[in-house]
Backbone:
């Protein structure tokens, strides 16, 4: 089996099962009142939503310190420039989306020499190339998160792999499919223009590349473009400052494993307490002379329980043909299904699956059982009453789950005021759940101080430090754990994803994708294609299907993209372009199926557009996630591939030019 816990929390064995925590109507009403108060306090303090962040690209134009926050500090793979050739397929983005897209193309019969993977970083890895901060690790089980393990014959060494291993795994995909030979690194795309005459895309970069590609697969990217708080003095600090995604080990010492020895005489501020900070704070607390953790809203931090992968466990669970596909689907069945796995087995068995099991599966089982009982007795089931009871069960489970998180905080953190400030007061999925065994214990160290901003955020940055509620905290270095811009929800008024890319995509008739999307928000068919922009596929775009495990949806899309290109080649088609009426009908169905008040009860965060109201217009502007269940959606794509209908949604043209 998996062996011992790597970083066990000292009191975690004392935690009650959430279902055993007593919750009644009086307590739930009291808690909901507290939730509403905390939400309103934050929204009223920062009603501008995403405008509370400043675009780092703008700051970088005039300040070398911010330019360093987006520059590449790592050794780069040498790539000849300028490139002026032609390729069959260009994949823009070297994260797992781009890697699976390129690999699936090769599997579908495209010669690797005709596939160019292009990334502004010095190598592949995407998120895991840029984010090398101490403690960086995946928060989804690595056996389902790291794609193509079976194809590589690879088994992750830990249940939750750390950044160095994930980065190595990314490189393994490149090597297995011979993708390095024609890849291009260290070049940022500056233009992407459809050539109506050649019927190909002209791709330009800041390295003077100008090459053509028949097909383009591009990833809008997650967790790569840093965002910063728009507060007075953000550019005035005289000390050292960097973002977690460009960790400065020259300044801190150490490595991704920790031991930041150069901070032993430093006063350190870290701004932010989201998923990244949860992993970083324990290492800063171990090394800094003084650490100030500035918090606007606490994250829900549950048990991680990471473990090494033993040979026995790998043989039993990670070796039979199809093991990763089965495990991935089982994970979705556990966390994004109303029924759970048909065999009742939870293969992943971790914090994610525990949450959903407590919140959803029990109430849904109650609903099914009650309906079955009524049928067996020959009675007509009272669906309204049964559904109401099932919803009440889910509501109770919501409060129980978050009460468990708050009780864990009381168990671990010794100082009562600090423990109280670290407690999250909102429903379970208002923010992405976090799992870490040594985050809360860090606040028991004498050199670590939580600076809770009472939901207001920091007030200002000065030459000497950070200001909260009129008090200045003098520090030597500021670490910005302030997150990343999200596709379709861009800062500085750049609401649609094309603006955030730093270049525009120009389709047929010189139409700009940004201008097409600007008036009413993103327009696409199933997130993958946009009418008027032929032969280009999108990943991580607005309207994409929502999965807890991002890499699963990226891989499924990659398989489908490769099939479309392969089928076009077999049938001698040169171009595809999604039909306008098909696109419009899809958007209409999306907006009709989504609740306008999406996440309105939640505290502000990137899940709910920083608390900005979600009416139909804002849903359209944000490009709400695909409404279909992920497994049902993946099955739909597979059916189209099998029955030969994958190309039915496009206008197709025959080959006029050949490479």
Residues:
């Amino acid at each position: 089996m998996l062996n011992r816990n790597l970083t066990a929390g000292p009191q975690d064995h004392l935690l009650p099962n959430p279902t055993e925590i007593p919750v009644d109507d009086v307590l739930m009403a009291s808690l909901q009142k507290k939730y509403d108060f905390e939400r309103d306090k934050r929204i009223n303090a920062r009603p501008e939503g995403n405008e509370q962040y400043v675009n780092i690209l703008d700051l970088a134009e005039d300040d070398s310190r911010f330019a360093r926050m987006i520059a590449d500090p790592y050794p780069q793979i040498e790539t000849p420039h300028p490139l002026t050739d032609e390729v069959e397929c260009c994949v823009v983005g070297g994260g797992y989306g781009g890697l699976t897209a390129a690999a699936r193309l090769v599997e579908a019969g495209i010669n690797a020499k005709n596939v160019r993977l292009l990334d502004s970083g010095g190598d592949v890895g995407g998120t895991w190339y840029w984010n090398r901060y101490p403690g960086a690790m995946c928060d989804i089980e690595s056996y389902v998160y790291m794609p193509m393990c079976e194809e590589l014959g690879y088994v992750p060494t830990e249940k939750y792999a750390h950044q160095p291993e994930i980065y190595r795994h990314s490189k393994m995909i490149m090597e297995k499919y011979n993708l390095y030979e024609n890849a291009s690194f260290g070049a940022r795309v500056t233009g992407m223009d459809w050539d109506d005459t050649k019927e190909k895309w002209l791709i330009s970069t800041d390295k003077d590349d100008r090459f053509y590609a028949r097909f383009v697969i591009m990833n809008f990217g997650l967790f790569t473009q840093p965002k910063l708080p728009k507060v007075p003095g953000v550019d005035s600090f005289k000390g050292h400052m960097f973002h977690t995604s460009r960790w400065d080990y020259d300044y801190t010492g150490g490595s991704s494993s920790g031991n930041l020895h150069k901070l032993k005489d430093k006063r350190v501020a870290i701004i932010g307490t989201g998923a990244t900070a949860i992993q970083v704070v324990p290492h800063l607390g171990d090394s800094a002379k003084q650490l100030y953790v500035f918090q606007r809203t606490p994250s829900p931090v549950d048990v991680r329980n990471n473990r090494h992968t033993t040979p026995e466990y790998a043989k039993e669970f990670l070796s039979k043909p199809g093991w990763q596909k089965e495990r991935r689907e089982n994970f979705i069945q556990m966390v994004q299904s109303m029924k759970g796995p048909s065999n009742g087995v939870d293969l992943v068995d971790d914090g994610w699956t525990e949450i959903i099991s407590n919140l959803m599966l029990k109430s849904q089982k109650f609903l099914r059982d009650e309906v079955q009982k009524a049928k067996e007795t020959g009675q007509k089931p009272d669906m309204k009453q049964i559904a109401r009871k099932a919803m009440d069960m889910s509501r109770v489970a919501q409060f129980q789950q978050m009460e468990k998180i708050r009780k864990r905080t009381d168990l671990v953190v010794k100082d009562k005021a600090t423990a109280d400030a670290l407690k999250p007061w909102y429903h379970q999925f208002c923010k992405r759940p976090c799992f870490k065994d040594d985050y809360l214990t860090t606040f028991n160290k004498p050199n670590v101080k939580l600076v809770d901003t009472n939901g207001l955020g920091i007030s200002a940055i000065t030459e000497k430090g950070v200001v909260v509620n009129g008090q200045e905290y003098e520090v030597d270095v500021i670490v910005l754990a302030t997150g990343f811009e999200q596709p379709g929800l861009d800062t500085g008024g750049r609401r649609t994803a094309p603006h955030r890319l730093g270049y525009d995509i120009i389709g047929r008739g010189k139409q700009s994708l940004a201008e097409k999307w600007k008036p009413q928000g993103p327009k696409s068919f199933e997130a993958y294609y946009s009418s008027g922009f032929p032969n280009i596929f999108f990943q991580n775009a607005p309207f994409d299907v929502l999965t807890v495990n991002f890499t699963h949806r990226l891989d499924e899309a990659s398989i489908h993209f490769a099939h479309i290109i392969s089928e076009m080649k077999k049938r001698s088609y040169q171009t595809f372009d999604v039909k306008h009426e098909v696109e419009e009908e899809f958007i209409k169905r999306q907006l009709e199926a989504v609740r306008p008040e999406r996440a309105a009860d939640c505290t502000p965060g990137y899940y709910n557009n920083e608390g900005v109201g979600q009416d139909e217009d804002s849903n359209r502007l944000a490009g709400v996630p695909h409404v279909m269940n992920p497994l049902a959606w993946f099955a739909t794509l597979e059916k189209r591939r099998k029955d030969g209908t994958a190309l039915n949604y496009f206008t197709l043209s025959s080959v006029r030019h050949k490479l």
About this structure: The domain at 86-222+487-654 is CATH 3.50.50.60 (FAD/NAD(P)-binding domain). Residues 108 and 566 are 6 Å apart (CA to CA).
